[in-house]
Amino acid sequence: MAQPTTKKEFKEWCLRKLGKPVIEINVDQDQVDDRVEEALSYYWDYHFDGAERTYFKHEIQYSYVQVSTAYLADPNDPAFKVGDVLREVSGSLAGQEEGSATATISKIDASEGKLFFAKPTKGTFSESGYVTSDTFTAKLATGGNYPAASIVSRFQNSIELQYIDVPENIIGAVKVFELGSNITAGSGMFNVQYQFVLNNLHDIVNYNLAHFYMSMQNLQFMEELLVGMTPMRYNRHINRIMLDTKWDRLQVGQHIVVEAYKIVDPDVYQDVWKDRWLQNYASAKIKYQWGSNLTKFNGMSLPGNVQFNGEQILNDAREEIQRLEEDMITSYSLPVMDMIG
Fold it and tell me: What pLDDT digit, counting tens, does each position of 235-291 carry?
């Protein structure tokens, strides 16, 4: 039969390798699923084809609190305006004691009732809290009685949280690219490459680029020594990248780029199911499960004086798994490198 291209076909391929349908394989379908997932996890962690280098990009967005659109329904007389100081209060009644969080409104989406800001000036807005503003307070001064706006939902950006959320398919992070301008990657006329070309344009074709290359390498090395790279912390089970930097220097709209490794998802790239090592390893894992199930019946006789021998199947599978894992380290793994995760 043709090589498998889906998980369902892959499971059947492994079971046929173990003897199905000539031999009854005493494993439950849930157990087969578990062993295949276990094999995939090992494949992603160690096989050079199991993960690929990528550049994860994160754009810094506005934080916001969402209130009822009724407070912004009248464009001529809204309760919140851009430039207002947004204040958390302790209750919905007018004149309630001010809470701990404040922020300056940078943008408003009246259709959804979202009040955007770069980060709180102080404190953190609560999802169960209430907010007022300068315009809101001015309305109260006219003698009106307006209930404070309850927060329907909120969103905290990475400046406020001081970490970046990453998807689960990221299994390792190597480095974060410099967050601001630097010697070798400045902007405009202050860029080193720009200055080099500007001053050598007349004979750029005949110029010895070895000197330029070595100079750029030396500049980068000097910058790493004198300025340093942005420290980064990452754990794949938390799915967050922590940057030990001054977050206040970052701005909304700025991008943070991280060099990382992500899994090669077989649901997207079906060729993964054809990998010979993965097929053999998943089959050995299922065989181990089969032998483990049968050890419960060791010594039990069937009609015709046939006896179960689950222990032999278990031992054979254990040896196959050990051999395949040794092959993985010696033949299919990339050299050890710096990677967080």
Answer: 989 999 999 888 888 889 999 999 999 999 999 999 999 999 999 999 999 999 999
* Joined tokens for residue 298: 């060791």
Cα–Cα distance list, 58 to 152, 222, 233, 336 (Å): 26, 28, 16, 27
Query: For residues 334 and 300, what is the distance between their CA atoms, to the nearest angstrom?
Result: 47
Alpha helices, H only, 82-237: 134-141, 158-161, 192-199, 209-226
Question: Any idea which residue has 């300068």 for tokens?
Answer: 134
Any idea what the Cα angle at residue 302 is, between residues 298 and 308, rounded to 5°?
Answer: 30
The dihedral sign for the CA sequence 114, 120, 122, 125: positive
Contact in structure between 178 and 245 (CB atoms under 8 Å): no
Spatial distance between the Cα atoms of 29 and 200, rounded to a whole number of angstroms:
69
pLDDT in the model for residue 69: 93
Query: CA separation (Å) from 241 to 41, 167, 259, 322, 336?
Result: 21, 11, 11, 34, 21
Residue 2: partners with Cβ closer than 8 Å, 6 or more residues away: none
Q: Is the dihedral of CA 29, 267, 274, 53 positive or negative?
A: negative
Above pLDDT 90, what percent of the chain? Answer: 57
Q: What is the pLDDT of residues 140-196, one digit of tens each?
A: 767 666 788 899 999 999 999 999 999 999 999 988 887 765 555 555 455 666 666
Question: Strand pairing partners for 115?
Answer: 65, 108
pLDDT at residue 108 is higher than 70: yes
> E-assigned strands of the chain?
51-59, 63-66, 85-89, 98-104, 107-109, 114-117, 130-132, 149-150, 153-155, 164-165, 170-176, 232-235, 240-243, 255-263, 301-302, 306-307
Contact call for residues 257 and 165 (beta carbons, < 8 A): no
- pLDDT surpassing 80 at residue 204: no
CA distance 103 to 87: 7
